[in-house]
Amino acid sequence: MTSPGLPDPTAPDAECIVVRGSGPLAGTVVVPGAKNSVLKLMATTILCDGPFELSNVPDIADVSIMGDLLAAIGVEMSRPAPGELTLVNTGVITPVAPYELVERIRASINVLGPLLTRCGEVRLSMPGGDDFGARPIDMHVAGLEAMGAEFKFSHGYLEARADRLHGAEITFDFPSVGATENLMTAAVLADGVTTIDNAAREPEITDLCDFLVAMGARIDGIGTSTLTIRGVDQRDLSPVSHRTVPDRIQAATYLAACSVAGGSLDVVGARADHMTMLLERFGDMGLQIDENDDGIHVEAGGRPRSIDVATLPYPGIATDYKPLIITMLSVADGVGIVTENLYPGRFRYVEELQRLGADVRTSGHHAVIRGVPRLSGAPVRAHDIRAGAAMVVAGLAAEGETRISGIHHIDRGYDDLVGRLSSVGAVIERC
Ligand code: EPU
Catalytic site residue 197? Predict the structure, then answer.
Protein backbone atom coordinates (compact mmCIF):
# COMPACT_ATOMS: atom_id res chain seq x y z
CA MET A 1 0.00 0.00 0.00
CA THR A 2 1.40 3.43 -0.94
CA SER A 3 0.90 6.46 1.30
CA PRO A 4 -0.90 9.38 -0.27
CA GLY A 5 1.53 11.67 -2.08
CA LEU A 6 4.30 9.07 -2.41
CA PRO A 7 5.05 7.50 -5.79
CA ASP A 8 3.76 3.97 -6.18
CA PRO A 9 6.89 1.76 -6.36
CA THR A 10 4.98 -0.80 -8.41
CA ALA A 11 4.03 1.75 -11.07
CA PRO A 12 5.82 1.21 -14.41
CA ASP A 13 7.89 4.38 -13.99
CA ALA A 14 9.39 3.11 -10.72
CA GLU A 15 11.51 0.81 -12.84
CA CYS A 16 14.48 2.04 -14.80
CA ILE A 17 17.43 0.88 -16.83
CA VAL A 18 20.89 1.94 -15.74
CA VAL A 19 23.60 1.86 -18.38
CA ARG A 20 27.25 2.89 -18.19
CA GLY A 21 29.57 3.90 -20.98
CA SER A 22 30.76 0.55 -22.20
CA GLY A 23 33.83 -0.68 -24.00
CA PRO A 24 33.79 -2.88 -27.08
CA LEU A 25 30.94 -5.37 -27.37
CA ALA A 26 31.66 -8.93 -28.42
CA GLY A 27 29.54 -12.02 -28.98
CA THR A 28 26.23 -13.10 -30.40
CA VAL A 29 22.75 -11.62 -30.12
CA VAL A 30 19.71 -13.49 -31.39
CA VAL A 31 17.00 -11.29 -32.93
CA PRO A 32 13.41 -12.35 -32.17
CA GLY A 33 10.34 -11.96 -34.36
CA ALA A 34 8.98 -8.55 -35.30
CA LYS A 35 6.45 -6.80 -33.07
CA ASN A 36 4.97 -5.07 -36.09
CA SER A 37 4.33 -8.38 -37.75
CA VAL A 38 3.22 -10.63 -34.93
CA LEU A 39 0.55 -8.21 -33.67
CA LYS A 40 -1.03 -8.16 -37.14
CA LEU A 41 -0.82 -11.93 -37.51
CA MET A 42 -2.57 -12.25 -34.16
CA ALA A 43 -5.37 -9.89 -35.21
CA THR A 44 -5.83 -11.81 -38.45
CA THR A 45 -6.73 -15.02 -36.58
CA ILE A 46 -10.18 -13.40 -36.20
CA LEU A 47 -10.88 -14.36 -39.81
CA CYS A 48 -11.36 -18.10 -39.30
CA ASP A 49 -12.16 -20.59 -36.55
CA GLY A 50 -9.68 -23.04 -35.07
CA PRO A 51 -6.16 -23.20 -33.60
CA PHE A 52 -3.33 -21.11 -35.06
CA GLU A 53 0.31 -21.54 -34.05
CA LEU A 54 2.85 -18.74 -34.22
CA SER A 55 6.57 -19.18 -33.61
CA ASN A 56 9.48 -16.73 -33.32
CA VAL A 57 7.19 -14.57 -31.19
CA PRO A 58 8.93 -11.82 -29.19
CA ASP A 59 8.34 -11.75 -25.44
CA ILE A 60 7.02 -8.18 -25.30
CA ALA A 61 4.20 -6.37 -23.52
CA ASP A 62 2.31 -5.54 -26.72
CA VAL A 63 1.81 -9.24 -27.46
CA SER A 64 0.15 -9.66 -24.05
CA ILE A 65 -2.05 -6.61 -24.64
CA MET A 66 -3.11 -7.88 -28.07
CA GLY A 67 -3.77 -11.29 -26.44
CA ASP A 68 -6.10 -9.63 -23.91
CA LEU A 69 -7.87 -7.73 -26.67
CA LEU A 70 -8.37 -10.90 -28.70
CA ALA A 71 -9.64 -12.77 -25.61
CA ALA A 72 -12.36 -10.10 -25.25
CA ILE A 73 -13.27 -10.67 -28.92
CA GLY A 74 -13.29 -14.49 -28.83
CA VAL A 75 -9.75 -15.70 -29.64
CA GLU A 76 -7.94 -17.41 -26.76
CA MET A 77 -4.18 -17.09 -26.54
CA SER A 78 -1.73 -19.38 -24.73
CA ARG A 79 2.06 -19.69 -24.70
CA PRO A 80 2.98 -23.38 -24.97
CA ALA A 81 6.72 -22.59 -24.95
CA PRO A 82 8.99 -19.53 -25.04
CA GLY A 83 8.66 -17.83 -28.41
CA GLU A 84 5.46 -19.70 -29.28
CA LEU A 85 1.82 -18.73 -29.24
CA THR A 86 -1.32 -20.73 -29.78
CA LEU A 87 -4.39 -18.72 -30.70
CA VAL A 88 -7.69 -20.54 -30.75
CA ASN A 89 -10.47 -18.78 -32.56
CA THR A 90 -13.52 -20.12 -30.68
CA GLY A 91 -15.94 -19.20 -33.44
CA VAL A 92 -17.90 -17.04 -31.00
CA ILE A 93 -16.72 -13.59 -32.04
CA THR A 94 -17.82 -10.38 -30.32
CA PRO A 95 -17.07 -7.49 -32.67
CA VAL A 96 -16.41 -4.99 -29.91
CA ALA A 97 -12.95 -3.75 -28.90
CA PRO A 98 -13.01 -2.04 -25.50
CA TYR A 99 -11.27 1.25 -24.71
CA GLU A 100 -9.09 -0.08 -21.85
CA LEU A 101 -7.21 -2.37 -24.27
CA VAL A 102 -7.42 -0.48 -27.55
CA GLU A 103 -5.99 2.74 -26.13
CA ARG A 104 -2.78 0.95 -25.16
CA ILE A 105 -1.54 -0.11 -28.59
CA ARG A 106 -1.76 1.33 -32.06
CA ALA A 107 -1.91 -2.14 -33.60
CA SER A 108 -5.36 -2.66 -32.07
CA ILE A 109 -6.68 -0.85 -35.19
CA ASN A 110 -5.75 -4.06 -37.02
CA VAL A 111 -8.83 -5.84 -35.66
CA LEU A 112 -11.04 -3.43 -37.65
CA GLY A 113 -10.71 -5.09 -41.08
CA PRO A 114 -11.00 -8.71 -39.88
CA LEU A 115 -13.99 -7.97 -37.57
CA LEU A 116 -15.88 -5.98 -40.17
CA THR A 117 -15.42 -8.51 -42.95
CA ARG A 118 -16.22 -11.46 -40.70
CA CYS A 119 -19.08 -10.07 -38.62
CA GLY A 120 -20.50 -7.29 -40.80
CA GLU A 121 -20.20 -4.87 -37.89
CA VAL A 122 -17.64 -3.57 -35.42
CA ARG A 123 -17.48 -1.19 -32.48
CA LEU A 124 -13.94 -0.07 -31.79
CA SER A 125 -12.50 2.50 -29.45
CA MET A 126 -10.18 4.87 -31.33
CA PRO A 127 -6.64 3.42 -31.16
CA GLY A 128 -3.79 4.68 -29.02
CA GLY A 129 -0.09 4.04 -29.50
CA ASP A 130 2.99 6.21 -29.27
CA ASP A 131 3.41 9.68 -27.96
CA PHE A 132 4.71 11.33 -31.11
CA GLY A 133 1.81 13.22 -32.58
CA ALA A 134 -1.49 12.62 -34.35
CA ARG A 135 -1.90 9.23 -35.99
CA PRO A 136 -5.12 9.49 -38.02
CA ILE A 137 -7.00 6.54 -39.53
CA ASP A 138 -8.73 8.37 -42.38
CA MET A 139 -7.15 6.09 -45.02
CA HIS A 140 -8.42 2.96 -43.24
CA VAL A 141 -11.91 4.45 -43.10
CA ALA A 142 -11.96 5.76 -46.71
CA GLY A 143 -10.75 2.41 -48.06
CA LEU A 144 -13.37 0.43 -46.15
CA GLU A 145 -16.07 2.91 -47.22
CA ALA A 146 -15.05 2.29 -50.84
CA MET A 147 -15.68 -1.39 -50.08
CA GLY A 148 -19.20 -0.63 -48.87
CA ALA A 149 -18.78 0.02 -45.13
CA GLU A 150 -20.67 2.77 -43.32
CA PHE A 151 -18.98 4.50 -40.39
CA LYS A 152 -20.27 6.43 -37.41
CA PHE A 153 -18.11 8.11 -34.75
CA SER A 154 -19.41 8.89 -31.29
CA HIS A 155 -18.16 9.03 -27.70
CA GLY A 156 -14.60 7.97 -28.66
CA TYR A 157 -15.81 4.91 -30.55
CA LEU A 158 -16.08 4.19 -34.22
CA GLU A 159 -18.86 1.94 -35.41
CA ALA A 160 -18.80 0.36 -38.83
CA ARG A 161 -21.33 -1.77 -40.68
CA ALA A 162 -21.42 -3.64 -43.98
CA ASP A 163 -23.66 -6.60 -44.84
CA ARG A 164 -20.89 -7.89 -47.05
CA LEU A 165 -17.91 -5.84 -48.15
CA HIS A 166 -17.34 -5.74 -51.89
CA GLY A 167 -14.15 -5.45 -53.91
CA ALA A 168 -12.92 -1.97 -54.82
CA GLU A 169 -10.04 -0.19 -56.53
CA ILE A 170 -8.19 1.79 -53.91
CA THR A 171 -5.26 4.13 -54.48
CA PHE A 172 -3.47 5.45 -51.42
CA ASP A 173 -2.03 8.98 -51.28
CA PHE A 174 0.67 7.50 -49.07
CA PRO A 175 1.69 3.85 -48.49
CA SER A 176 0.27 3.50 -44.98
CA VAL A 177 1.31 0.28 -43.25
CA GLY A 178 -1.79 -0.05 -41.07
CA ALA A 179 -4.27 0.92 -43.81
CA THR A 180 -2.70 -1.57 -46.24
CA GLU A 181 -3.03 -4.32 -43.62
CA ASN A 182 -6.60 -3.48 -42.66
CA LEU A 183 -7.87 -3.27 -46.24
CA MET A 184 -6.03 -6.41 -47.25
CA THR A 185 -7.47 -8.49 -44.39
CA ALA A 186 -10.93 -7.07 -45.02
CA ALA A 187 -10.68 -7.84 -48.76
CA VAL A 188 -9.89 -11.52 -48.10
CA LEU A 189 -13.58 -12.25 -47.39
CA ALA A 190 -15.07 -9.48 -49.56
CA ASP A 191 -17.23 -10.15 -52.59
CA GLY A 192 -15.03 -9.69 -55.69
CA VAL A 193 -11.60 -8.27 -56.39
CA THR A 194 -9.87 -5.49 -54.46
CA THR A 195 -6.77 -3.74 -55.72
CA ILE A 196 -4.67 -1.57 -53.45
CA ASP A 197 -2.36 0.76 -55.34
CA ASN A 198 0.57 2.50 -53.66
CA ALA A 199 0.31 -0.17 -50.96
CA ALA A 200 2.96 -0.36 -48.24
CA ARG A 201 5.49 -3.14 -48.86
CA GLU A 202 7.37 -3.48 -45.59
CA PRO A 203 8.66 -7.01 -44.85
CA GLU A 204 5.97 -7.25 -42.16
CA ILE A 205 3.28 -6.71 -44.84
CA THR A 206 4.78 -9.50 -46.90
CA ASP A 207 4.76 -11.70 -43.78
CA LEU A 208 1.05 -10.99 -43.34
CA CYS A 209 0.40 -11.76 -47.03
CA ASP A 210 2.22 -15.10 -46.69
CA PHE A 211 0.17 -15.90 -43.58
CA LEU A 212 -3.10 -15.07 -45.37
CA VAL A 213 -2.18 -17.06 -48.48
CA ALA A 214 -1.32 -20.08 -46.32
CA MET A 215 -4.80 -19.71 -44.76
CA GLY A 216 -6.38 -19.86 -48.22
CA ALA A 217 -6.55 -16.19 -49.24
CA ARG A 218 -5.86 -15.24 -52.88
CA ILE A 219 -3.40 -12.39 -53.14
CA ASP A 220 -1.27 -11.32 -56.11
CA GLY A 221 1.52 -8.75 -56.18
CA ILE A 222 2.97 -9.71 -52.79
CA GLY A 223 6.02 -7.57 -52.04
CA THR A 224 5.02 -4.94 -54.62
CA SER A 225 3.09 -1.70 -54.29
CA THR A 226 0.02 -3.11 -56.09
CA LEU A 227 -1.82 -5.82 -54.21
CA THR A 228 -4.74 -7.67 -55.78
CA ILE A 229 -6.96 -9.61 -53.40
CA ARG A 230 -9.67 -11.93 -54.73
CA GLY A 231 -12.33 -12.50 -52.09
CA VAL A 232 -12.93 -16.08 -50.95
CA ASP A 233 -15.63 -17.73 -48.88
CA GLN A 234 -15.00 -18.13 -45.16
CA ARG A 235 -15.14 -21.94 -45.61
CA ASP A 236 -12.08 -21.65 -47.88
CA LEU A 237 -9.93 -20.40 -44.99
CA SER A 238 -8.25 -22.63 -42.41
CA PRO A 239 -5.92 -21.98 -39.47
CA VAL A 240 -2.16 -22.32 -40.00
CA SER A 241 1.23 -22.50 -38.28
CA HIS A 242 3.55 -19.65 -39.13
CA ARG A 243 7.02 -18.36 -38.19
CA THR A 244 7.13 -14.60 -37.61
CA VAL A 245 9.57 -12.59 -39.70
CA PRO A 246 12.62 -11.33 -37.70
CA ASP A 247 12.52 -7.83 -36.24
CA ARG A 248 14.61 -5.51 -38.40
CA ILE A 249 14.31 -2.64 -35.89
CA GLN A 250 15.62 -4.74 -33.01
CA ALA A 251 18.42 -5.98 -35.30
CA ALA A 252 19.32 -2.36 -36.13
CA THR A 253 19.42 -1.55 -32.43
CA TYR A 254 22.25 -4.05 -31.85
CA LEU A 255 24.13 -2.71 -34.88
CA ALA A 256 23.77 0.82 -33.50
CA ALA A 257 24.96 -0.34 -30.08
CA CYS A 258 28.04 -1.87 -31.67
CA SER A 259 28.62 1.32 -33.66
CA VAL A 260 28.86 3.56 -30.58
CA ALA A 261 30.56 1.07 -28.24
CA GLY A 262 32.86 -0.54 -30.81
CA GLY A 263 33.64 -4.25 -31.07
CA SER A 264 32.12 -7.00 -33.13
CA LEU A 265 28.75 -8.73 -32.98
CA ASP A 266 26.94 -11.54 -34.71
CA VAL A 267 23.31 -10.53 -34.99
CA VAL A 268 21.78 -13.93 -35.57
CA GLY A 269 18.41 -14.18 -37.29
CA ALA A 270 18.64 -10.68 -38.80
CA ARG A 271 17.54 -10.50 -42.45
CA ALA A 272 20.02 -8.29 -44.32
CA ASP A 273 17.71 -8.33 -47.35
CA HIS A 274 15.06 -6.54 -45.23
CA MET A 275 17.54 -3.82 -44.24
CA THR A 276 19.39 -3.16 -47.48
CA MET A 277 19.29 0.61 -47.52
CA LEU A 278 20.00 0.96 -43.81
CA LEU A 279 22.99 -1.37 -44.04
CA GLU A 280 24.37 0.69 -46.93
CA ARG A 281 24.10 3.85 -44.85
CA PHE A 282 25.62 2.15 -41.82
CA GLY A 283 28.46 1.14 -44.14
CA ASP A 284 28.84 4.82 -45.09
CA MET A 285 29.09 5.57 -41.37
CA GLY A 286 32.06 3.22 -41.09
CA LEU A 287 30.48 0.00 -39.86
CA GLN A 288 31.86 -3.10 -41.47
CA ILE A 289 28.85 -5.29 -42.20
CA ASP A 290 28.82 -8.79 -43.64
CA GLU A 291 25.81 -10.94 -44.33
CA ASN A 292 26.17 -14.64 -43.57
CA ASP A 293 23.93 -17.70 -43.37
CA ASP A 294 22.99 -16.97 -39.75
CA GLY A 295 22.35 -13.24 -40.01
CA ILE A 296 24.62 -10.20 -39.95
CA HIS A 297 28.16 -9.79 -38.66
CA VAL A 298 29.18 -6.26 -37.72
CA GLU A 299 32.50 -4.72 -36.70
CA ALA A 300 33.07 -1.19 -35.49
CA GLY A 301 36.09 0.77 -34.28
CA GLY A 302 36.59 4.48 -33.70
CA ARG A 303 33.90 7.15 -34.09
CA PRO A 304 31.18 6.70 -36.71
CA ARG A 305 31.30 9.05 -39.72
CA SER A 306 28.48 11.57 -40.17
CA ILE A 307 25.96 11.18 -43.00
CA ASP A 308 22.70 12.81 -44.11
CA VAL A 309 19.57 10.63 -43.96
CA ALA A 310 15.87 11.00 -44.81
CA THR A 311 13.17 8.60 -43.57
CA LEU A 312 10.82 7.09 -46.14
CA PRO A 313 8.40 4.16 -46.44
CA TYR A 314 10.02 0.80 -47.24
CA PRO A 315 12.39 0.16 -48.94
CA GLY A 316 13.58 3.56 -47.67
CA ILE A 317 15.07 4.19 -44.25
CA ALA A 318 12.28 3.50 -41.73
CA THR A 319 11.23 6.22 -39.31
CA ASP A 320 11.65 3.65 -36.53
CA TYR A 321 15.42 3.58 -37.19
CA LYS A 322 15.72 7.35 -36.84
CA PRO A 323 16.27 7.71 -33.07
CA LEU A 324 19.09 5.16 -33.36
CA ILE A 325 20.65 7.01 -36.30
CA ILE A 326 20.48 10.37 -34.51
CA THR A 327 22.12 8.79 -31.49
CA MET A 328 24.93 7.40 -33.65
CA LEU A 329 25.34 10.82 -35.30
CA SER A 330 25.56 12.43 -31.84
CA VAL A 331 28.98 10.84 -31.38
CA ALA A 332 30.00 10.79 -35.04
CA ASP A 333 32.84 12.69 -36.64
CA GLY A 334 31.22 15.60 -38.52
CA VAL A 335 27.77 17.07 -39.07
CA GLY A 336 24.72 15.09 -40.21
CA ILE A 337 21.23 16.18 -41.24
CA VAL A 338 18.26 13.91 -40.65
CA THR A 339 14.91 14.59 -42.33
CA GLU A 340 11.73 12.99 -41.02
CA ASN A 341 9.09 12.42 -43.68
CA LEU A 342 6.53 10.34 -41.76
CA TYR A 343 5.91 11.80 -38.29
CA PRO A 344 6.80 15.50 -38.00
CA GLY A 345 6.53 15.33 -34.19
CA ARG A 346 8.92 12.46 -33.82
CA PHE A 347 11.86 14.42 -32.39
CA ARG A 348 10.86 14.54 -28.75
CA TYR A 349 13.73 12.33 -27.58
CA VAL A 350 16.17 14.94 -28.91
CA GLU A 351 15.69 16.90 -25.68
CA GLU A 352 16.78 13.82 -23.79
CA LEU A 353 19.86 13.38 -26.00
CA GLN A 354 20.69 17.02 -25.34
CA ARG A 355 20.66 16.26 -21.62
CA LEU A 356 23.41 13.75 -22.39
CA GLY A 357 25.45 16.47 -24.11
CA ALA A 358 24.46 15.79 -27.72
CA ASP A 359 24.60 18.80 -30.04
CA VAL A 360 21.31 18.44 -31.95
CA ARG A 361 19.11 21.19 -33.30
CA THR A 362 15.70 20.57 -34.81
CA SER A 363 13.59 22.69 -37.10
CA GLY A 364 10.36 21.33 -38.55
CA HIS A 365 11.11 17.99 -40.19
CA HIS A 366 14.89 18.35 -39.86
CA ALA A 367 17.54 17.69 -37.25
CA VAL A 368 21.12 18.87 -37.53
CA ILE A 369 23.54 16.83 -35.47
CA ARG A 370 27.11 17.95 -34.77
CA GLY A 371 28.92 14.93 -33.42
CA VAL A 372 30.78 15.19 -30.12
CA PRO A 373 33.47 12.69 -29.08
CA ARG A 374 31.56 11.40 -26.06
CA LEU A 375 28.21 11.94 -24.33
CA SER A 376 27.93 12.34 -20.58
CA GLY A 377 25.59 10.18 -18.51
CA ALA A 378 22.44 11.72 -16.96
CA PRO A 379 18.86 10.75 -16.04
CA VAL A 380 16.68 10.59 -19.17
CA ARG A 381 13.19 9.42 -20.08
CA ALA A 382 11.96 7.06 -22.79
CA HIS A 383 9.01 8.71 -24.56
CA ASP A 384 8.25 5.83 -26.91
CA ILE A 385 9.59 2.41 -27.83
CA ARG A 386 12.23 3.47 -30.35
CA ALA A 387 13.25 6.59 -28.43
CA GLY A 388 13.73 4.37 -25.36
CA ALA A 389 16.05 2.01 -27.22
CA ALA A 390 17.97 5.02 -28.52
CA MET A 391 18.49 6.21 -24.91
CA VAL A 392 19.99 2.83 -24.06
CA VAL A 393 22.35 3.07 -27.05
CA ALA A 394 23.22 6.65 -26.06
CA GLY A 395 24.05 5.42 -22.57
CA LEU A 396 26.63 3.07 -24.05
CA ALA A 397 28.30 6.11 -25.64
CA ALA A 398 28.19 8.24 -22.47
CA GLU A 399 30.75 8.66 -19.73
CA GLY A 400 29.35 7.66 -16.34
CA GLU A 401 25.82 6.52 -15.60
CA THR A 402 22.67 7.04 -17.70
CA ARG A 403 19.45 6.23 -15.89
CA ILE A 404 16.48 5.71 -18.18
CA SER A 405 12.92 5.97 -16.84
CA GLY A 406 9.67 5.31 -18.71
CA ILE A 407 11.00 1.89 -19.62
CA HIS A 408 7.53 0.37 -19.97
CA HIS A 409 7.76 1.84 -23.48
CA ILE A 410 10.87 -0.25 -24.18
CA ASP A 411 9.13 -3.36 -22.81
CA ARG A 412 6.34 -2.85 -25.35
CA GLY A 413 8.64 -3.65 -28.24
CA TYR A 414 11.96 -5.07 -27.05
CA ASP A 415 12.47 -8.62 -25.94
CA ASP A 416 15.03 -8.51 -23.10
CA LEU A 417 17.11 -5.66 -24.49
CA VAL A 418 19.03 -5.44 -21.21
CA GLY A 419 19.84 -9.17 -21.05
CA ARG A 420 20.88 -9.30 -24.68
CA LEU A 421 23.18 -6.27 -24.42
CA SER A 422 24.64 -7.38 -21.12
CA SER A 423 25.46 -10.82 -22.62
CA VAL A 424 27.75 -9.14 -25.16
CA GLY A 425 29.60 -7.00 -22.61
CA ALA A 426 27.48 -3.87 -22.12
CA VAL A 427 27.37 -2.56 -18.58
CA ILE A 428 23.63 -2.38 -18.13
CA GLU A 429 21.03 -3.44 -15.61
CA ARG A 430 17.38 -3.09 -14.82
CA CYS A 431 16.55 -1.54 -11.46
N1 EPU B 1 -1.53 8.21 -41.88
C2 EPU B 1 -2.60 9.02 -42.16
N3 EPU B 1 -3.84 8.43 -42.23
C4 EPU B 1 -4.04 7.11 -42.08
C5 EPU B 1 -2.92 6.27 -41.80
C6 EPU B 1 -1.68 6.86 -41.70
O7 EPU B 1 -2.46 10.21 -42.28
O8 EPU B 1 -5.20 6.65 -42.18
C9 EPU B 1 -0.20 8.81 -41.75
C10 EPU B 1 0.31 8.72 -40.32
O11 EPU B 1 -0.19 9.77 -39.52
C12 EPU B 1 1.80 8.80 -40.50
C13 EPU B 1 2.02 8.03 -41.79
O14 EPU B 1 0.75 8.05 -42.48
O15 EPU B 1 2.20 10.11 -40.67
C16 EPU B 1 2.48 6.61 -41.60
O17 EPU B 1 1.51 5.85 -40.95
P18 EPU B 1 1.34 4.28 -41.16
O19 EPU B 1 -0.11 4.01 -41.29
O20 EPU B 1 2.25 3.82 -42.25
O21 EPU B 1 1.90 3.73 -39.80
P22 EPU B 1 1.18 2.80 -38.74
O23 EPU B 1 0.61 1.61 -39.42
O24 EPU B 1 0.33 3.59 -37.86
C25 EPU B 1 3.34 1.36 -38.39
C26 EPU B 1 4.17 0.92 -37.22
C27 EPU B 1 5.00 2.08 -36.70
C28 EPU B 1 5.85 2.63 -37.81
C29 EPU B 1 4.97 3.01 -39.01
C30 EPU B 1 5.75 3.49 -40.21
C31 EPU B 1 2.79 -0.76 -36.21
C32 EPU B 1 1.96 -1.18 -35.06
N33 EPU B 1 3.29 0.46 -36.15
O34 EPU B 1 2.45 2.35 -37.90
O35 EPU B 1 5.84 1.51 -35.72
O36 EPU B 1 6.56 3.76 -37.35
O37 EPU B 1 4.20 1.88 -39.42
O38 EPU B 1 6.65 2.52 -40.64
O39 EPU B 1 3.03 -1.51 -37.15
C40 EPU B 1 6.89 1.32 -33.61
O41 EPU B 1 6.96 0.10 -33.83
O42 EPU B 1 7.47 1.87 -32.65
C43 EPU B 1 6.07 2.14 -34.51
C44 EPU B 1 5.65 3.35 -34.19
Answer: no
Please report which confidence band the pLDDT of residue 208 belongs to, taking 50, 70 and 90 as the band edges: very high
Question: 350 and 419: one domain?
Answer: yes
Separation of 280 CA from ligand 1 center, angstroms? 24
Q: How far is the CA of 110 from the centre of ligand 1 (A)?
A: 12
In this predicted structure, which of 86-90, 95-99, 416-420 has the lowest mean pLDDT? 95-99
5 assigned to some structural domain: no
Closest ligand 1 atom, residue 177 Cα: 20
Section 34-45 average pLDDT: 98
Residue bearing the bigger pLDDT, 427 or 343: 427
Please give the share of the chain, as a percent, with pLDDT higher than 70.
Answer: 95
- Give residue 167's pLDDT: 98
Residue 129 has pLDDT above 60, yes or no: no
83/196 same-domain check:
yes
Domain that holds residue 48: 35-243
Ligand 1 binding pocket (C-beta < 6 A) is: 35-36, 39, 106-107, 130, 135-140, 174, 176-179, 200, 318-320, 342-343, 385-386, 413
Q: How far is the CA of 28 from the centre of ligand 1 (A)?
A: 31
What are the residues whose beta carbons fall under 8 Å from the beta carbon of 266, sequence distance 6 or more?
Answer: 27, 28, 29, 294, 295, 296, 297
pLDDT at position 155, please? Answer: 86
Query: CA neighbours within 13 Å on the CB side: how many for 179?
Result: 24
Q: Is residue 99 part of a domain?
A: yes
Q: How many CB atoms lie within 10 A of CB 155?
A: 6
Q: How far is CA 431 from CA 20, 285, 398, in A?
A: 13, 33, 19
In this prediction, residue 134 has a pLDDT band, given cuts at 50, 70 and 90, of low
Q: Both 136 and 268 in a single domain? A: no
**What's the pTM value of the predicted model, to 2 decimals?**
0.95
